[in-house]
Amino acid sequence: MSSPSRALLVVSLCSLAIAFGENSTVRGELRDGAEPLDRYAVYLVSSQRGSDSDRAYVSSSGSFQFRSVVPGNYMLEVRNMQGDVIRQQSITVAGMAVEAFVSLGHTRPAVTPGQPSISVSQLRRDPDGRAARELAQGEEFLLRKDLSNARKHFVRALKVDPDYAEAHAELGTCAFRAGQMDEAKQEFERAVALDPKQIVAWGNLATMLFQSKTFGQAEQVARQGLAAEPGDRKLHFVLGAARFGQGVLEGDTVEHLELASVSYPNAHLMAAEALVRLGDMKRARPHLEASLISNNAAIRARAEYLLGKLERSPAK
Question: CATH topology for 24-117?
Fold first, then answer.
């Protein structure tokens, strides 16, 4: 029979995979555009950070999507091929899926032409938008879990533009989901080498390394991703969980888990586990109480066990 501490470690590490599904998917549609709809890109701008959080290209039907969005308040910005903002719309992301519909109508730029945009370099390499359209079509297949067709479109996008970071990241996601880990690692590394702001690629690469139990590498990749985007909670989660997996509880392990717990509630149990072992029972208590509302029965049971243990122990 395994010891309580060993069983606890297994439960906590398993909770990482469960929690990765707790961010939201934002799906949307552009309507009433005078130009072909796939000439636009949609940006999700964090109202808290005031910077581009993610970018989605629009399909010929006007649809777009953002995956793994941290709950919060955002501004949707629709930009044309010159990078001009032609429509803005505020949204609140909460729950597993959010829908947004943007009416373009008669559009005028909301900012002065020529303002810097990260889409400009892409336009130089892909002036007619072929690679962007292939990417958008591939993302639609990826959403439907059709990995074969999604892969075909991402490969076509890379034939047009071999340095298309987003396409490398999405091709890596296809390989990751298909269990082709060597290819996934290669594509994720290529994506972040081309564009260090490819946070989804950083997160997926760190997650892949964590799931293969190469915790040291997962920690290193998560730290690199956080250097590019310090507020990414998924990377905070992987970093804290990777240190937990190595048995390194001191230092910033708990700090990263606490930062992640806003979006990944199962990080509470890992933080509590670390704090209990460090003897900080007072700080562990709120994390255990938060774990009691987890959807995972094993996590709830473990939290109840530790809370009972805390009740029988002197406060520290």
Answer: Immunoglobulin-like (2.60.40)
